Amino acid sequence: VLAAVFLTGLKLVVGLTTNSLGILSEAAHSGLDLVAALMTLFAVKISDKPADETHHYGHGKVENLSALIETGLLLLTCGWIIYEAIMRFIHPRALDAVGWGVAVMLFSCLVNLGVSSRLFKVGEKTESVALKADAWHLMTDVYTSAGVMLGLFVIWIAEMALPGRHFHWIDPLAAIAVALLII
Q1: Who contacts 119 (Cβ-Cβ below 8 Å, separation ≥6)?
Q2: 159 burial level (CB within 10 Å; 0-12, 13-18, 19+)
Q3: C-alpha–C-alpha distance, residues 138 and 112, integer Å
């Protein structure tokens, strides 16, 4: 939860500063990670309850419902990312401070890799479907952040190597790639 709050805020600030749709799509994705982490925390606490009068087999299915809701939220976010990317192709915008974007995406990759690894271990140990789903979700974040980072890096290098030429179209392309990978 703390990692998701921190990464969402950081990506949002840098995304708005750089005007990068790729980073803003990652901020939205990290915001969903926060919602997903809170849902998972809630689901794991409820699923741990023993069987009772109204739940003869326990509360374990809450974890599956949590994973389903997380999937639905991801699909909605992907629709928004693709829509915004198409709008950026139609109405291109220049990017600023691309180096900061590259740095934030690298940092995001490292944080999500660490949190995902931890969730996998705890999910395996506790046999928690919700924790494993959240771990897979965060592993997807590692790949999407790396894709955005690579796109920004290419823009940064290409615009330094070829002054006066613009490669801003790579940013919405990276955002679409993020959305497709999430889907």
Answers
A1: 131, 132, 134, 135, 138
A2: middle
A3: 6
Identify whether the C-beta of residue 174 lies closer than 8 Å to the C-beta of residue 18.
no
- Distance from C-alpha of 74 to C-alpha of 80, rounded to nearest angstrom: 10
Which conformational region is residue 19 in: left (phi greater than 0), alpha (psi within -120 to 50 degrees), or beta?
A: left
User: What pLDDT digit, counting tens, does each position of 111-133 carry?
Assistant: 989 999 998 999 889 888 777 87
Half-sphere exposure of 27 (CA within 13 A, CB side): 18
Three-class SS state of 40: helix
pLDDT per residue as tens digits for the range 33-45:
788 778 777 777 7
Residue with tokens 């599956």: 64
Locate all alpha helices (DSSP H) within 91-128, ordered by sequence: 98-126
Nearest to 176 by CA among 76, 34, 94, 80: 80
pTM recorded for the entire structure = 0.73
> Which tokens hold the place of 105?
């995406």
